[in-house]
Design brief:
Keywords: Membrane, Transmembrane, Transmembrane helix
Subcellular location: Membrane
Largest sheet: none
Pfam families: Aa_trans
Organism: Anaeramoeba flamelloides
Structural class: mainly alpha
Radius of gyration: 22 Å
Protein name: Amino acid transporter transmembrane domain-containing protein
Distance between the termini: 33 Å
């Protein structure tokens, strides 16, 4: 995506709003407060709402490396997402679609009929997000079903008897059915992202902070100290409380600005 956009920036204008000289970008909007809602929701959706982290991190024997592992992973994805967002917004301008890959349906390296290689690139970029979501859907369904089963029927988790297997199948079925039914009700991507950000805010900011404070109190009682081998500067109480306040403020702000942008 980045390479093809940069090629377009230095080969031809995307539309009449682009500059007449190289680089063929459009006049950027550096700041728009009304876009905070979708920005916050997108950041939560793409970066923080990773319910599979606990499952992925479980097989690692040395959990001390988790902090470095996930820090480097999220830093890498953040940099890539940021670069994609900047170059695409500069090139596509106000015509940037809510699903940014859909801009490639109208994309060509030059003002002519697209070549075969350009058509292939179009389909790869356009279809990749769809295929990616389809591929991750079963994993998310299994994680959600496992969590719900552990909440309501903990005695059946990891059991091999017929009743436990039936309960597991039912939880997986309904965990997969819920988002499918939700997609029939809510069809606009910005609304989906903002809606998901409500749950994402709880998962990314609120619940972890409460668990952090509660676990530190438990460590104080059992070990007579709050710090563990996994503690770091992010484990400080003031940091946790600041994240909690930020999560509530950002979540409410996201809803308010999204409502204003759509109905204001």
């Amino acid at each position: 995506m980045i390479i093809t956009v940069l090629v377009g920036v230095y080969t031809h204008r995307f539309n009449k709003a682009s500059f007449d000289t190289k680089p063929y970008i459009q006049r950027p909007i550096y700041f728009r407060l009304s876009g905070f809602g979708i920005l916050f929701g997108t950041a939560i959706f793409s970066q923080c709402l990773h319910t599979c982290i606990t499952i992925i991190g479980e097989p690692l024997r040395d959990k001390k490396n988790l902090k470095k592992l996930f820090t480097s992973t999220f830093s890498t994805t953040f940099i890539i997402y940021t670069i994609v967002g900047i170059v695409c917004s500069l090139y596509f301008g106000k015509d940037t679609k809510s699903v940014i890959s859909l801009n490639w349906t109208e994309y060509s390296w030059e003002d002519r009929d697209p070549l075969v290689i350009e058509q292939i690139i179009k389909y790869i970029v356009t279809l990749f997000p769809v295929l990616d979501i389809l591929s991750i859907f079963p994993l998310n369904t299994i994680v959600l079903a496992y969590g719900l089963q552990n909440l309501f029927f903990p005695q059946t988790v990891d059991k091999k008897d017929r009743r436990s297997k039936t309960i597991k199948i039912l939880f997986r079925f309904f965990s997969g059915l819920i988002p499918i039914l939700g997609s029939l009700i809510i069809k606009e991507l910005p609304i989906i992202i903002v809606t998901d950000s409500i749950f994402g805010t709880c998962i990314a900011f609120l619940i972890p902070v409460l668990l952090q404070l509660k676990s530190k109190k438990a460590c104080k009682v059992v070990f007579n100290k709050e710090d563990t081998p996994y503690s770091g500067w992010m484990s400080k109480n003031n940091i946790s409380k600041a994240l909690f306040v930020f999560g509530i403020t950002g979540g409410i702000g996201s809803l308010v600005f999204s409502f204003i942008q759509k109905y204001g």
